[in-house]
Specification:
This protein is an alpha+beta fold. Helices cover about 25% and strands about 30% of the residues. It has a six-stranded mixed β-sheet with strand order 3-11-10-5-6-7, with no helix packed on it. The longest helix has 30 residues.
Length: about 325
């Protein structure tokens, strides 16, 4: 069934004559639209048209070709696919690394181990199958090595003071010295976890000295190490143990504390210093921090006050009798 043709009329100047012409507008435009949509659905001109399938605002194929920057999908496809493949490879590689870290196949952490001077320390490891060869290193230098075809062999200054357990792979170092501090690691096909051990050698802590002074009604307590001790001072921690009846306030330094003079001066306060291996304490009675005359007056007042209260109660009861 043919659709009616549109009619357009015009009037010539001066003549008054009218002429009209007919043209099949809608039908022809509909066919062109179908042809354009077919090309769009095939994907050949998708980037050039930029949304032709939405209808009224679409461009024709010729208009798209005349648009600056127009690139057919057939030409843009390979570069887009290459970019997508690179991103995919990066994400995939990151996922594999995370999986290995989670399964302990790779370890970037260094475990800190503390040992005391002239004592021993053991570096523990784990394996997923029996050992056939082991090499322990300090930095890049060998400490000890062994395989199932030979005996254990120690190197450098570790001779006669290291013990290698060939079953567990653990390494024990005796008679530690400060010069033994370094990073240690095991190399073996039987070990998945490449954990490194950072060894810190610490000297025993001396007993601290506790001093106190009275200033403006406050007793200042200071805990100090008087000896020439300089081994890993950054590891030393200070703490205070105060009775529940005394309120200790922290000073400007961890080694300082404050107590008010009005507190119970018969109580004892303890200073504690520690590091990862050692702990030392010292104490002081607060009454020793106050001049003797003030202490004597305070004790006299504490002795007289109960007697005075008792006398007043006695007088009240005696005078109140009929």
């Amino acid at each position: 069934k043919r659709k009616p043709l549109l009619e357009e009329s015009s009037t010539e100047e001066g003549g008054g004559r009218q002429k009209s012409r007919k043209y099949p507008g809608p039908r022809r435009r509909s066919r062109e639209g179908k042809k354009t949509r077919a090309k769009t659905s095939s994907g050949a001109w998708r980037d050039a048209r930029g949304g032709a399938h939405r209808g009224a605002g679409s461009l024709s194929v010729r208009q798209a070709e005349a648009t600056p920057g127009w690139v057919p999908v057939a030409e843009a496809g390979p570069s887009a696919m290459a970019a997508g493949s690179a991103a995919g490879w990066a994400v995939g590689a990151l996922g594999v690394v995370c999986l290995l870290l989670r399964l302990d196949f790779i370890s970037c952490d260094s475990q800190v181990i503390y040992g005391a001077v002239n004592k021993s320390v053991t570096l523990y490891t784990s394996s997923f199958k029996p050992f056939k060869e082991i090499v322990w290193k300090r930095g890049k230098d060998k400490v000890v090595e062994w395989d199932d075809q030979s005996e254990v062999r120690a190197f450098l200054s570790f001779k006669d003071r290291v013990y290698l357990d060939t079953v567990s792979g653990n390494l024990t170092i005796d008679k530690l010295t400060p010069s033994d501090e370094d990073e240690y690691g095991i190399e073996s096909p039987s070990v998945r976890n490449n954990t490194k051990f950072t060894l810190r050698v610490i000297e025993s802590l001396p007993s601290p000295t506790l001093s106190c002074t009275l200033t403006d009604g406050n007793i200042t307590l200071q805990c100090m190490i008087l000896e020439d001790y300089n081994t890993h001072l950054e590891l030393i921690q200070y703490s205070w143990d105060c009775p529940s009846t005394i309120q200790c306030q922290s000073g400007s330094k961890p080694s300082e504390a404050y107590v008010t003079e009005e507190g119970d001066l018969s109580q004892e306060i303890q200073c504690i210093i520690s590091n990862p291996l050692f702990r030392r304490t010292t104490s002081v009675i607060l009454s020793t921090c106050v001049p003797s005359d003030k202490t004597r007056h305070r004790f006299v007042l504490f002795a007289i006050l109960p007697a005075l209260i008792g006398g007043l109660l006695f007088l009240k009861c005696f005078l109140g009798r009929p």
